[in-house]
Design goal:
The protein has one domain: Nuclear Transport Factor 2, Chain: A, CATH 3.10.450.50. A hairpin with a 2-residue loop joins strand 5 (about 95-110) and strand 6 (about 110-120). The chain has helices at about 5-20, 25, 45-60, 120-125, 130-150; strands spanning about 30-40, 40-45, 60-75, 80-90, 95-110, 110-120. The chain is built from five helices and six strands; from the N terminus they run ααββαββββαα. By secondary structure, the protein is of the alpha+beta class. The protein has a six-stranded mixed β-sheet. The protein is about 40% helix and about 40% strand.
Length: about 160
């Protein structure tokens, strides 16, 4: 039986790589067919796509990354951790963003096969100075996405 410290080792591979600006090192923490579901940029499948996401989007949009994982729970295959993540936005006038969230991780063969995250994205967007109307459109799109999912049908009372 694994413990939370094992999960922190897996997560530390990619958080440390990101803080160094190493997109290839970040992607190396994942299986070749891994899925990374990013709260802002969406879903990326496969190590090359994950590496490109970091190189082109994250490192293209920000700098001075800090990512701390904490409170891990892990059974040897599936794990959860809370995190604090911050960066300086290149595109938003060098504003510093702070995000607080959590992740679900599935590990296979010593690498991450599936990574999904959630965060208080409204707080991060406000901290970056993103206008309220842009935030509203983002939240409306998220709402439509969730309501349209088949696994959420039970929550649509009266067919709404």
């Amino acid at each position: 039986m694994a413990d939370g410290s094992d999960l922190l080792l897996y997560l530390g591979r990619f958080t440390d790589a990101l803080e160094r600006g190493d997109a290839a090192g970040f992607a190396a923490a994942f299986t070749p067919d891994a899925v990374y579901d990013d709260v802002f940029y969406g879903r990326f499948e496969g190590r090359p796509a994950i590496q490109a996401m970091i190189a082109e989007r994250w490192l293209g949009d920000g700098r001075d990354f800090r990512w701390e994982m904490r409170d891990p729970v892990f059974d040897g295959r599936t794990g959860y951790a809370n995190w604090d993540f911050s960066f300086t936005s290149i595109k938003q006038g060098d504003l510093r963003a702070l995000m607080v969230g959590a992740s679900k991780v599935i590990v296979q063969g010593g690498l991450i096969r599936d990574y999904r995250e959630w965060c208080y994205d409204g707080a991060a967007l406000a901290g970056l100075g993103v206008p309220a109307d842009v935030q509203q459109r983002r939240f409306e799109a998220q709402d439509l996405k969730f309501r349209g999912r088949a696994d959420k049908a039970r929550h649509r009372l009266g067919g709404a």
